[in-house]
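hey
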């Protein structure tokens, strides 16, 4: 910023020397604000300065050398920047000059930030379900946003069913299973001027898959092995079996069983023989396509080996 102040100051001094040769006390700092934006442009305005003949705008990408910033001369109290990039912050400042070329506003000590509209969200999906609705994930969250705004519409796009905002990459929507919906998502960002900028909407048709019921689990100990049994779930394509030596945590996948299976015999735990007088805990998931059931409460078995 200091380099820009020096450069603008030299320009102002040159105008003064050429046209007047004297200096006057400058007015207050101009405080411009961004009033609108597109994906490649941003428009700013400011309160006109009495006696101003023109304004000098200095701007460039934040983080680059201030000597590379552009200087633009305008005669109105507004300007539209073009050729901007999304997900990039720009710096700019405005100084007023009179007919003789004198700076009649103070050079600001800090730049004002400038933004194009946030980047549109393209990669988002429904990745799971609970009793009240679906879980959604935004995979390509832009850098410069405050959050995600979403809307869910009926399959024809004629009626909005639910909407909300989330500051995270994930959100939950209260919708029913076995129905088709249109999901709309856009990113938003609130500028330092308290103006909220929105990206364009992105939409996708979502078809929720039916919830998978959880199997009922039972187990029995033996001399050197454990037999795990579960009830079959209609429509399940396979079953995933998780085990732990702690009932509340530490579960890892230890086996998978086909759709026609309803039992599994364990003689090893993580490639090691089962230990005497050790309690093992299990969970079984029924899977259909990409949908995994909610795990049932763990069932445990006491494994022992006779001497």
């Amino acid at each position: 910023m200091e380099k820009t102040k020096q450069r603008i100051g030299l320009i102002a001094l040159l105008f003064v020397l050429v046209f007047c040769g004297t200096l006057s006390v400058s007015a207050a700092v101009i405080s411009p604000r961004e009033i609108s934006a597109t994906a490649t442009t941003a428009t700013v305005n400011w309160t006109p300065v009495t006696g101003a003949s023109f304004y000098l705008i200095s701007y460039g990408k934040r983080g680059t050398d201030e000597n590379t910033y552009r200087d633009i001369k305008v005669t109105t109290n507004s300007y539209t920047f073009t050729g901007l990039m999304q997900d990039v912050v720009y710096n700019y400042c405005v100084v007023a000059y009179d007919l003789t070329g004198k700076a009649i506003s103070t050079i600001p000590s800090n730049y004002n930030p400038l933004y194009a509209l946030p980047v549109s969200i393209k990669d988002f999906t429904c990745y799971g379900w609970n009793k009240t609705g679906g879980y959604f994930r935004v995979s390509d969250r832009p850098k410069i946003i405050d959050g995600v705004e979403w809307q869910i519409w009926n399959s024809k796009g004629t009626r909005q069913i639910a909407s909300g905002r989330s500051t995270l990459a994930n959100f939950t929507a209260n919708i029913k299973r076995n129905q088709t919906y249109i999901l709309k998502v856009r990113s938003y960002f609130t500028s330092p001027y308290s103006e909220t900028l929105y990206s364009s909407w992105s939409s996708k048709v979502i078809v929720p898959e039916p919830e998978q019921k959880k199997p009922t689990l039972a187990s029995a100990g033996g001399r050197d092995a454990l037999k795990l049994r579960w009830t079959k779930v209609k429509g399940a394509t396979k079953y995933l079996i998780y085990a732990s030596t702690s009932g509340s945590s530490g579960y890892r996948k230890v086996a998978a069983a086909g759709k026609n299976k309803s039992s599994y015999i364990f003689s090893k735990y993580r490639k090691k023989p089962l230990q005497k007088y050790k309690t093992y805990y299990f969970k079984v998931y029924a899977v259909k396509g990409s949908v995994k059931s909610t795990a049932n409460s763990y069932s445990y078995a006491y494994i022992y080996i006779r001497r």
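The two ends are 82 Å apart (CA to CA). The chain has a mean pLDDT of 79.
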